[in-house]
Specification:
The chain is of the alpha+beta class. The chain has a domain at about 1-50. Helix content is about 30%, strand content about 35%. It is built from two helices and three strands. The chain has helices spanning about 25-35, 60-70; strands at about 1-10, 15-25, 40-50. Strands 2-1-3 form a three-stranded antiparallel sheet. The longest helix is centred in the C-terminal third of the chain and has 13 residues, at about 60-70. It is rod-shaped, with a radius of gyration of 21 Å.
């Protein structure tokens, strides 16, 4: 999942900045945006940092291994 930052112009002409939508891709994010703001025009799109996937425990396992190895003495 990625986060997309949008700057839009509403159908009444009002500019709205910093609309952030999390989606799989930009097309999905724009579709969600256009459902919320009917008739809007997208002025700018920025891809923000990727959200970490849930269930990824590789970092946690690394920390646990590091802690357990430090407690051992030879």
């Amino acid at each position: 999942m990625e986060k997309f930052g949008f700057r839009i112009q509403t159908r009444s002409g009002l500019a709205v900045d910093n609309l952030i939508i999390q989606a799989v891709d930009q097309a999905t994010a724009e579709a969600r945006l256009k459902q919320m703001y009917l008739g809007c025009t997208v002025l700018d799109v920025k891809v923000l940092e990727s959200a970490p996937m849930r269930g990824d425990t590789s970092d946690l396992e690394g920390v646990i291994n590091l802690i357990s190895s430090q407690g051992k003495t030879d």
